[in-house]
Write a structure and sequence with these properties.
This is Acyl-CoA thioesterase. The protein has helices spanning 42-61, 145-174; strands spanning 15-17, 23-28, 64-75, 83-94, 98-109, 115-128, 139-141. The chain is an alpha+beta fold.
């Protein structure tokens, strides 16, 4: 993708409240959703995470968005077949054309009502126009304590992402592209 120039003040003027990006998804854990440990398959949860994060990203800028990276997914507690899983997602920070999206995964035991944070995830999305060119995204206005904490700590995560991406590019240059059978 081509680099986009620095935004003018008028281009950066559009702002949205974090709450305008918030979305939820709840699902039951079915027998076909579990792994050999009889807990929710991590790949299934990661699919849910990317799906709801993409919705939050689209709600922020109302244009096409693409996943630039899944920065982290931390599995904290297993999700069992007796649980439901609720994902809450919202934008936490924006750059010029990119946005950080947070996903909180809550497991609820449907028999006892006990709830726990089962996983958390940070993803980065980029806003694109019809020609796949980067677009400027609105600035965010956090309101709740949770939103403010995530917003204030976002620049550190952005710096780590940038460093990790540079290291990944260097590492990719080292890797081969030939198959063993060639």
């Amino acid at each position: 993708m081509r680099e986009i120039p620095k935004a003018t003040e008028s281009e950066q003027a559009e702002k949205k409240y974090v709450r305008e990006t918030r979305c939820f998804k709840t699902a039951r854990v079915f027998p076909t959703d579990v792994n050999n440990h009889n807990t929710l398959f991590g790949g299934k949860l990661m699919s849910y995470i990317d799906d709801i994060a993409s919705i939050a990203a689209s709600k922020l800028c109302r244009v096409n968005t693409v996943t630039a990276s899944t920065d982290s997914v931390d599995f904290l507690y297993p999700i069992n077949p007796t649980d439901s899983v609720t994902l809450e997602s919202f934008a936490t920070w924006t750059g010029r054309s990119s946005m950080e999206i947070f996903v909180k995964v809550i497991r609820e035991d449907l028999k006892t009502g006990e709830k726990k944070i089962a996983a958390t995830a940070f993803l980065t999305f980029v806003a694109l126009d019809e020609n796949n060119r980067k677009l400027i995204v609105p600035r965010l206005i956090p309101e709740t304590e949770e939103e403010k904490k995530l917003y204030e700590t976002a620049p550190d995560r952005a710096a780590m992402r940038k460093q990790r991406r540079e290291e990944s590019k260097k590492f990719a240059d080292f890797l081969t592209v030939t198959y063993p059978w060639e």
